[in-house]
């Protein structure tokens, strides 16, 4: 076993962890290439193939036992379907036939046969059959991983202190893990603002993403060090490296503890300029963390996770209970609930969502809600009812024009009238906000500001759309640049336009929680920053050491520079000593 294998990716959630890896590959293994084998190796390939089939069956049988204990009949049913595929004689013979006839290795034969099977199914326009391709994909990956000698147990339960290693993790995967037992995530795909990264930060566990082939290098049971601060993973470290990281881990944890003294201090600059610091949350279990870090409220409650990983859509009452709990627990501080942002890289299993060429620019967020009005209305009813129990605000994602916002308000008015008729209580003056995450809405911020009570800038998407950089594509993530002059100009014009209309501006994208950007955002006059709860105290510490007037001078000067690098160098120089390394 090779020692000290260093893998470099992108640090997606801070912290250092040392623990055992658990491989949960859901992505397509990339070891598929044509490999011809000699006559004498053919039988060996066939026996590898049958062994991989038996291993796969064993893993699925074990998963079935686990699922049975949890009393989830649907899970058992899915596993049975997968087992049936593995027992299909015609299919198995077909693969063995290709190994023999074409003298190719088992992995390639599996890939070829599965591909033609999926093609045949694709040609049948039966919805039920169409769904079967995902079962075939799943089995194909499982067999291929076993062929590659990677033991991949089905995740129904993760062991104590495990680090999940995967090609990719969908939000549904991450939502399904038992948070208390997962130490961290390591994935081949993704970027800093992909939802896996956001989820890791929400769960306060370190994560490194965009590692390319970590899931092929790391085996289940390997001891690994995950350094989410620097975006590196060390596989099978030697004693010396282990000691070094244990010390670093201790230091980092000490630093985190030292920040706790800022918890109850106000979030103001040296010269008294207030910037409220709020938290982004994905799941209601994070409320304690939000309070632990002394947030001024919740600036973004991403509600789509309430819809993922479920057999049926959540009912109005289920949603109401969740929002009510958040409103009550944080009152009188605000809870800003964002209506469902489904689509893009987040899918609902309960709905048949058409596959789109460009999901990020497709039927997502508010566009989806304006199509599936009953899902939208149910959510609005739940949010409004919860508004009777604390300070609730509503904001809408992906607004791209004024008409869209007006249509949303018509629906909201209608839902309010309906609740009134039913005698249900809600806050009739509930504040509504538009997310500014599509460049068009940023450009017409002055017009949009007349329609709402506040703005919240979603920089993750705004930068993606403004710079034409897919936020989950690691090939182009190096171009993702919050300090691009175009981004900064747009931010300035949004904030100025909103202030001219007398409404406040929050920022809830990842940019809001990065120390380097804080002096710029302060100088631009941002009113609120909403970020992952773990970043709150460090941001407060920095804010409390900054001078607002000095930051406005820095901002005025930075608009004279032409590139992000020049701006970064200038801001770093001007704020030296204030920012942590
Ligand atoms: C954003 O786009 O910046 C944002 C906060 O929304 P999400 O990351 O959920 O798309
Ligand atoms: Mg967004």
Helical amount among residues, as a percent range?
A: 40-55%
Given helix and strand content, the structural type is alpha/beta
- What is the residue-averaged pLDDT? 88
Strand order of the largest sheet: 1-8-7-3-4-5-6-2
Largest sheet: 8 strands, mixed
Q: Which strand-content bin applies to the residues? A: 5-15%
Number of helical segments with 4 or more residues: 22
Low-confidence stretches: none
Form type: globular
What are the distinct ligands in this entry?
phosphoenolpyruvate, magnesium ion
The rounded distance between the terminal residues' Cα atoms is 35 Å
* Radius of gyration from CA coordinates: 26 Å
What's this, in brief?
This protein is an alpha/beta fold. The chain contains 22 helices and 16 strands.
């Amino acid at each position: 076993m090779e020692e000290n294998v260093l893998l470099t990716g992108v640090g997606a959630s801070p912290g250092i962890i040392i623990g055992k890896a658990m491989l949960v590959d859901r992505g397509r293994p990339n070891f598929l290439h044509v490999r011809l084998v000699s006559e004498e190796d053919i039988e060996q390939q066939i026996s590898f193939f049958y062994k991989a089939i038996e291993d796969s069956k064993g893993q699925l049988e074990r998963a079935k036992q686990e699922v049975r204990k949890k009393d989830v009949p649907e899970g058992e049913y899915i596993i049975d379907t997968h087992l049936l595929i593995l027992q299909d004689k015609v299919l198995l013979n077909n693969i063995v036939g290709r190994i023999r006839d074409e003298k190719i290795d088992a992995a390639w034969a599996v890939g070829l046969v599965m591909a033609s099977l999926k093609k045949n199914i694709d040609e049948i326009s039966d919805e039920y059959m169409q769904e079967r391709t995902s079962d075939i994909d799943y089995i194909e990956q499982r067999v291929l991983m076993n062929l590659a000698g990677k033991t991949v147990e089905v995740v129904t339960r993760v062991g104590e202190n495990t680090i999940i290693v995967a090609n990719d993790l969908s939000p549904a995967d991450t939502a399904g893990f038992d948070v208390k037992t997962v130490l961290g995530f390591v994935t081949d795909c993704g970027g800093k603002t992909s939802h896996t990264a956001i989820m890791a930060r929400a769960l306060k566990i370190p994560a490194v993403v965009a590692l390319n082939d970590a899931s092929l290098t790391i085996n289940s049971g390997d001891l690994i060090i995950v350094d989410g601060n620097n975006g590196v993973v060390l596989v099978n470290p030697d004693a010396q490296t282990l000691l070094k990281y244990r010390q670093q881990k201790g230091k980092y944890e000490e630093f985190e503890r030292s920040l706790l003294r800022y918890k109850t201090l106000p979030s103001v600059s040296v010269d008294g300029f207030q910037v409220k610091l709020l938290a982004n949350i994905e799941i209601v279990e994070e409320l304690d963390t939000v309070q632990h870090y002394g947030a001024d409220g919740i600036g973004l409650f991403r509600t789509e996770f309430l819809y993922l990983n479920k057999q049926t859509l959540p009912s109005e009452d289920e949603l109401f209970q969740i929002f009510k709990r958040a409103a009550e627990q944080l009152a009188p501080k605000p809870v800003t609930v964002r209506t469902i942002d489904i689509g893009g890289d987040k899918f609902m299993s309960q709905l048949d969502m058409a596959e789109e060429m460009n999901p990020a620019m497709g039927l997502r967020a508010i566009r989806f809600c304006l199509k599936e009005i009953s899902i939208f209305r149910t959510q609005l009813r739940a949010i409004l009812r919860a508004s009777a129990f604390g300070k609730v605000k509503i904001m809408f994602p992906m607004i791209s024009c004024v008409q869209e916002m007006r249509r949303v308000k018509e629906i909201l008015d209608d839902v309010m009238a309906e609740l009134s008729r039913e005698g249900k209580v809600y806050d009739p003056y509930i504040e509504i906000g538009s997310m500014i995450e599509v460049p068009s809405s940023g450009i017409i911020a002055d017009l949009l500001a007349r329609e709402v009570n506040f703005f919240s800038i979603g920089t993750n998407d705004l930068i993606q759309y403004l710079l034409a950089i897919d936020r989950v594509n690691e090939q182009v993530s190096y171009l993702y640049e919050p300090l691009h002059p175009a981004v900064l100009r747009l931010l300035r014009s949004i904030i100025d336009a909103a202030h001219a209309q007398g409404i406040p501006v929050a920022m809830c994208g990842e940019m809001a929680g990065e120390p380097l950007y804080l002096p710029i955002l302060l100088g631009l006059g941002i009113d609120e920053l909403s970020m992952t709860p773990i970043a709150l105290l460090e941001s407060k510490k920095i804010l409390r050491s900054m001078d607002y007037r000095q930051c406005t001078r820095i901002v005025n000067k930075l608009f004279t520079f032409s590139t992000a690098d020049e701006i970064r160098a200038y801001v770093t120089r001007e704020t030296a000593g204030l920012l942590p390394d």
